[in-house]
Structure formats: C-alpha cells, structure tokens
C-alpha cells in the first residue's frame, strides 16, 4: 500500500525544485528543458527527495521505507507530476476497459473479460478529485479547458489516448468516466484476429477504403466504433493528407508518422468564462475543407456538424470516415435526419435523405454483447453493413452483410459497386 499523504507531500517538494530549476535556467539564458529532459530530471529529484526522507527517518529512530515501498512512492510521485495521479495504475493495466468514478471513493472498473470490480479510492476527497481533473484539463488537448462551477462538464483525451468525461455540480458528487484506448495502432488484420470482423469483411473494408468510399461507422457506446475507425484510417496510403475533426482529441493518427506523415488534427474549442472564443465542430469541418485535405475524418458526429460533413462528402472529398451513435444500421439515417433538423440550415427530412444518398456509400454497424456461452466474455463485432443505393423520398439501401449465426456479419445481398471494389482487390465469397 502506498502512503498517499507522502506522495502528495513529495510531489509538492519535487514540483517546487523543478520550478526553481526552470527559473534558474531562464535567468541564465539557457534553453528550456524538453518534456523528456524534464521527466528525467524529475526522476533524479524524486530519488533525491526519497533519499532525504530515508535519512530523516533513520535520524528519528524510525524504519525507513523498504526498496519496494520506495519504488511505489517514486511511481506515485511521478504519476502525480506527469500522469493522472492515483488513476495511473488503472491506466497502466492492459486489461482495464472502463473506469467509472462516482465520487473519489466509489471507483468501478470494467475489465476485458467482462468483470466489473470496485477498486480503491483515487483521491482522499471529492475536492482533490476535482483538482486532479482540473490539472488534466489544463494540460491535455490543444487548449486549456475549464472545469469548475461555471463549466461543470468536461471531455478530454488523456496522454495514453483514453477518453475522459467528467461532470460536477449537476451531480451530488463529481463523476468521471474513462474509456480506455486499449488498441492504439490497430489494423483491420488485428480486428480479424480478435473476431471483430471476418476475413471477408476485412478484405471488403480494405477495398472500400482504397476505392475512396464514404463510410459511416455506427453502434452503441463502447461498441468499438473508434477502434474500427482507426483501423480503417490505417488502410489509407501514407501519401494522402488527412484532416481529423474531433470534440476532444482521441484518434491520434498524427502520433504515427510512419503511417500518416501528413495529418492535421482539429479539436473543438469551448467558450471561455465570458462565453467568447468558441469554435464549433461545424466550423472546424468547414475550415478543414480549405486545408487541402485528401480525406476528412470526423471522429464522432453528435450534432449540427452533420450537414457540413455531408456537404463535404458530396463535393469531391471522397473517402471520408466518421462515427455515429445508433441502434442499427438502418436507424443511422433517422439519426442523421434528426441532427440535420438541429442545424442552422434546418434541412427538412426529405432534403436530408437526398443529401445522405449522395454522400454516404456504406454504413458499418458494430455491437457489443456478453457471450454467456463463453463465461460472460464481452464480445465486439461488426454485425451489419448496409450499402446506400439512392433516394426515393427516403434513403434506399440494402444490407449487404447481415448478422450471422454466431453474431458477426456474413454476406447477404449483391453489392452494387462490386466491380469497383474488385478493382481494388476484393473478391466476394472467399474465406
């Protein structure tokens, strides 16, 4: 067990010494330390502080920390300085899928095998939990994000790629949900390997991306939409210029320059305390079209940006990708129409359906399900793929892949653009 009161005290000491060194470097005209240099220097300071503490304990006639205890303290101090404090061990655990915090001492963790367990507190008080979230909000993403009484909602991407959502003052206690990004650099072959998609669907999606088809990925929360989107994006040739638009940076395509050397990541900016400076998703999608994109990737459609995005898809920006919340591949069209009604354009449903028919080529639906025949293991898989065929008062579509006997999608109906996909390597019916 780590003594978190010591971690808090030593974090302050190391932080003060680190700040003092920064001031000295600046006064002497030295270049500021890089992030990695600062972390290495902090490790040296942590060792120094712990050594001083051990000597102090011996001088007072007490037993100093053991080697294991010192290692735990060092990891805790480093996490408090550069990581996410007492959340760090959970984020370091590769089996953790989601972390739900209902106040500092009510921590529920979901694991990859389907288990959900209650874990130790992540802070000594709710105020300390709020302070931790405020620190993360100040340094994660492209701009500082407020989290206080005036701004009680927060969405951001953690350094490891996980997605954090937090609220305060609209709940009795501060609440935080963290969705882990367990697969960073992921390919369609990885998803074939873990059963998310079949080998045929893998080849189909590879060809669809190569043929620059506009693909919308739909599903419920935590069904694996973003993971599939990353895998599709990694099928795009490295010679193409990609622009991603997100509410909070999550995709992280720019982190892999060997796959995507030419990426611009846009992040929505929230208004300041005076209500100024907001840049909406719709504005960012519009701006992205002026940045010479080969493809525009919208991380998640949740509102009026849908009209701008569909317009972009019909104006020569083929090969776009996006995700949307929906309960089925068919329901996607109604969900888009609902978002379009909320936009400033106030598009009627029939106009929206015409826009959808001209913009989207395929809808891929992914779902998650507990497989009780396999001990309750949580499974995620693509269960339906729908091809958009046109518009006749409503969107016309055909379900070219339908749920198979075991859940994952299997071929069902002829694909209208089959010849085009075959030109990019897809051969139907080969398993």
TrEMBL record:
SUPFAM superfamilies hit by this protein: P-loop containing nucleoside triphosphate hydrolases
Occurrences of domain Bacterial type II secretion system protein E (ranges): 89-364
A molecular-function term among this protein's GO annotations: ATP hydrolysis activity
Domain of life: Bacteria
Alphabetized PANTHER family for the sequence: TWITCHING MOTILITY PROTEIN PILT, TYPE II_IV SECRETION SYSTEM ATPASE
Family: Belongs to the GSP E family.
Name the record gives this protein: CpaF family protein
Species in which this protein is naturally found: Nonomuraea montanisoli
Top-level taxonomy: Bacteria, Bacillati, Actinomycetota, Actinomycetes, Streptosporangiales
């Amino acid at each position: 067990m780590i003594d978190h009161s010591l971690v808090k005290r030593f974090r302050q000491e190391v932080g003060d010494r680190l700040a003092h060194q920064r001031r000295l470097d600046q006064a002497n005209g030295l270049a500021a330390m890089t992030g990695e240099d600062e972390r290495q220097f902090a490790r040296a300071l942590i060792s120094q502080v712990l050594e001083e503490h051990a000597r102090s304990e011996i001088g007072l006639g007490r037993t100093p920390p053991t080697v294991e205890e010192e290692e735990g303290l060092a990891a805790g101090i480093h996490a408090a300085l550069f990581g996410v404090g007492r959340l760090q061990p959970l984020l370091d655990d590769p089996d953790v899928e989601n972390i739900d915090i209902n106040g500092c001492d009510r921590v529920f963790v979901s694991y990859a095998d389907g288990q959900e367990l209650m874990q130790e507190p992540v802070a000594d008080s709710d105020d300390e939990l709020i302070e931790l979230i405020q620190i993360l909000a100040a340094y994660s993403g492209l701009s500082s994000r407020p989290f206080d009484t005036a701004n009680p909602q927060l969405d951001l991407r953690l350094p490891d790629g996980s997605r954090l959502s937090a609220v305060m003052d609209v709940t009795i206690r501060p609440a935080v949900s963290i969705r882990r990004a367990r697969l960073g650099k992921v390919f369609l072959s990885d998803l074939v390997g873990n059963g998310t998609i079949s080998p045929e669907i893998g080849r189909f999606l590879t060809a669809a991306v190569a043929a620059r088809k506009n693909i919308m990925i739909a599903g419920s929360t935590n069904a694996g939409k973003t993971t599939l989107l990353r895998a599709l994006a990694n099928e795009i040739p490295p010679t193409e210029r990609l622009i991603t638009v997100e509410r909070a940076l999550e995709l992280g395509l720019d982190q892999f320059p060997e796959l995507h050397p030419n990426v611009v990541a846009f992040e929505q900016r929230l208004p300041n305390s005076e209500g100024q400076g907001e840049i909406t998703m719709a504005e960012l999608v519009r701006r992205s079209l002026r940045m010479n994109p080969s493809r525009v990737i919208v991380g998640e459609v949740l509102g009026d940006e849908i009209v701008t995005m569909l317009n972009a898809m019909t104006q020569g920006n083929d090969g776009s990708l996006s995700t949307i919340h929906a309960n089925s591949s068919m329901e996607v069209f109604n969900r888009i129409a609902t978002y379009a009604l909320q936009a400033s354009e106030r598009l009627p449903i029939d106009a929206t359906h015409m826009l959808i028919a001209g913009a989207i080529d395929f809808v891929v639906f992914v779902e998650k399900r507990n497989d009780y025949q396999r001990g309750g293991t949580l499974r995620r898989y693509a269960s339906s793929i729908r091809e958009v065929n046109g518009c006749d008062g409503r969107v016309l579509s055909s379900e070219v892949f339908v749920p198979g006997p075991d859940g994952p999608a299997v071929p069902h109906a002829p694909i209208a653009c089959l010849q085009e996909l075959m030109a990019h390597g897809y051969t139907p019916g080969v398993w």
